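Record filed below.
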Amino acid sequence: MRQNNSWLFLLIVSVLMISCDTNRVFDSYKPIPNSWHKDSIVSFKITPPDTTNKYNLFVNLRNTNAYKYSNLHVIVEMIFPHGKTIKDTLEYRMADPSGKFLGTGYTDVKENKLWYKENVIFNETGTYTVNIQHAMRENGKVNGVVSLDGITDVGFRIENPNSN
């Protein structure tokens, strides 16, 4: 019976911690089954709450020890409601020089909150689409990494920078 009470306590604490996240405007993850194929695009449909406030945007990733690189290259594409598209190729550091993974987490899964854009105003009303795909290459090789192991989830987050 004591074990059941501890799980209930952990569940309540987790719910309270999530509900206290006053910065969050949008936060969603999509699982990556097995490995992340180079042609696999992770998409998020977003309807921002207004067209006047500034927001900070993040790419969120969860990785395990099966991830064998110290960095990560991704292509992030934002498609506006009226058709305009912005595409960025970004590089993130995933491990320190000793090989220890960055990010948070006490298990072998590390969660990384990676800057995408700061003080963004969604000046068009409607639904935006954010597409994320990996663009990893190994040193000295022309062709990209076909299947990227160790990434378990890809997420996208929008925060209100004024709620601290």
Summary: Helices lie at 2-19. Strands lie at 24-31, 35-37, 42-46, 54-63, 71-79, 85-93, 110-121, 128-134, 147-149, 151-159.
